[in-house]
Task: structure prediction
Amino acid sequence: MAINLFKNINDTFSLSLPADEKLENHIRQVRKAAYSFVNPTPPSNPSLIAVSKEVGQLLGLSEEDLQSDAFLEMFSGSSVHTGTKPYAMCYGGHQFGQWAGQLGDGRAINLAEVVQNDQRWALQIKGAGLTPYSRSADGLAVLRSSIREYLCSEAMHHLGVPTTRALSLVLTGDEVLRDIMYDGNSAYEKGAIVCRVSPSFVRFGNFQMFAAQRDHENLRKLADYTIQYFYPELGTPSKDAYIAFFKAVVERTLAMIIHWQRVGFVHGVMNTDNMSILGLTIDYGPYGWLEDYDPNWTPNTTDRQTRRYRFGHQPQVALWNLAQLANALYPLVEEQEPFVEILEGYKTSYSGRYYDMMSAKLGIEFQDASDIKLIQELVDTLQLTETDMTIFFRRLTDYSTATIYSDDKVLDHIKEAFYAPQELQGDVLESWYSWIKKYLDRLKMEKVSDEERRSNMNMINPKYVLRNYMAQLAIEKAEEGNYDLLSEIYQLLLNPYEEQPENEKWFTRRPDWARHKVGSSMLSCSS
Ligand code: AMP
Ligand code: MG
Result:
């Protein structure tokens, strides 16, 4: 079938970068090319199970378009849109700190780019079959991980966190074999395809690949292309522009990390191939949301030993990844100093930005070292007994300059946040009293009214996040063919900062059953 869904489709944009000359789809090492042409493998019986009207609108698609046969054909990979040449990108990366060589889009296929209201959007389907980069894997994705990616990309966007978006979720009708916990228990699962949408899917690893191949000509082309289309404010390519480019990537990455720390998001696999050159959250795999505030927590069981990608380590890992990007860009600049300086700058900016962000969560305007102390004491106190991050910060707005301190009542506002209220005794209780006392004193120094502070706090402390068990519940229902919960949670997370009285049930601590459950607190890279 010829697809003519988009009038604004563009196949020339990324094609300004060098392509792999071979056209056949077999697994290989690719040289001197940014991508390889490859068509999706048509699934046997595709059906659309979720679609984002909002992302559709960004692309100029009407609701009717989203429900059309052409839409399903295109985003299930059944047919290729007229005038386009889908491709998979070549990139490498450091996985868990080790250089892994060529990785590439092993199961993601860029269908095309559309331009809408002067914004370019790349459309990429994930799970539509083998590409030259599939290595030993099958090019497919399962329903469970596709739901997680679909829900979380949109939830993050609405939380104000830079991220790739999700347009659609399609069931392929094919079965996919996976060993979820890598323990020899393989089973068939439903296959699915998510369409991701982003101005670009270029990663740190795209630059690293050319650098590793000492292909400086293409490295330069890739940098020039990225600057021209995505950092046009940096002007014409030059040594200075490459340095400014690196600085801009550092700034965007830092901004993204601060957001992650603000909302309690743990990416789980911050390999350099999973770092967007635009500072977007990308590749939702074994990610998770902090429930009890534990900086050592990672949802990724594959990383259980070293916990490299634990919540509290994300800022340092981002810096490490940026240093790898600096190494990759070095041949374009041939001076170490500017890179070192920018990376040093990350450390100083990080701590300033972190304390500003935490102050904002507390509803105070950062003043001096005594605020640093207040924040650090809070971070320590939160860990004394399991305390739910989201509930704690959201309920903190219940304190005001009018709150009268009294030992036995003062924790009432935040009591819902404690997983084990019986542990609130002795030193733990004293620490909490002491912190609240300081916080109440500190609030009195603020110039804004209680009301204004409350409303500011509610704009940065979400009421609803995609708790790990929520995604898991939606998955379990979807696996039975019921998509109501998927749709309910999707809707809920469109307005994460708003009070939604009918949805109060999602503003509760993680239920006990989810504490050690596969899919809720334990996730692997198997997807
Ligand atoms: P990830 O851990 O999802 O970031 O993936 C790391 C690399 O493995 C990337 O190059 C992916 O494209 C590739 N990959 C992951 N899963 C599959 C799969 N099922 N088929 C082909 N390639 C895959
Ligand atoms: Mg990846």
User: Anything to note?
Assistant: The pocket of magnesium ion (ligand 2) is lined by residues 273-274, 283 (CB under 6 Å). DSSP finds 15 helices and twelve strands in the chain.
